[in-house]
Design brief:
The chain is mostly helical. It has helices at about 5-10, 15-20, 30-60, 60-75, 75-85, 90-120, 125-135, 140-160.
Length: about 170
């Protein structure tokens, strides 16, 4: 559940950013997306991870657990803003991706440290591998189904309504 909101967004972020405005996306080119996500977003992720590691090492995980839970989840609202504004300005989109990835870097620090803490004993490597697998692979089908649903509802509605069609199969819009 810790990464659930981020995992839901991860399946549809690229499509939303690259899809034309006429189809409910931002209409960025692949090069612009690469700059915004692959450069600016990556810098935010690295800075968030470094700051998160520093804060936890300074004050302990207990103090920073809930603030970092919020840090990994709350910045996802940038996509709600982008879906309503459909602002295709590269600076605005890059700034939003920086904020989202910075928060993810902060929050993922606590998850990683918790998995390391849990993986004590004789089989440390196996326990850490199991934790990593559960953390990254849980519910992949749910995420992909949700991405299909986002196509039906358009991105804005999918970001705000978390439900799946009764039969689980998205239908095309008329």
């Amino acid at each position: 559940l810790y990464r659930f909101p981020e995992a839901l967004l991860n399946t549809m972020t690229k499509t939303f950013i690259l899809r034309p405005n006429s189809q409910g996306g931002l209409g960025l080119s692949p090069q612009e997306y690469g700059l915004a996500n692959g450069t600016v977003g990556l810098i935010g992720l690295l800075l968030g991870g470094i700051l998160g590691g520093y804060l936890v090492s300074r004050d302990g995980m207990k103090k920073w657990l809930w603030p970092m839970v919020c840090a990994i989840t709350l910045p996802d609202v940038v996509y709600i803003y982008l879906s309503y504004s459909l602002n295709s300005d590269l600076f605005v989109v890059s700034s939003c991706l920086f904020v989202e990835q910075f928060g993810y870097g902060l929050g993922f620090t606590v998850l990683t440290l918790y998995m390391l803490f849990y993986s004590q004993g004789k089989f440390k490597t196996s326990h850490y591998s199991i934790c990593t697998g559960i953390s990254s692979g849980h519910g992949v089908g749910i995420y992909e189904g949700y991405a299909g649903l986002s196509h039906v509802l358009h991105h804005r509605d999918a970001l705000l309504h978390h439900h799946v069609p009764r039969n689980g199969i998205p239908e095309d819009r008329p």
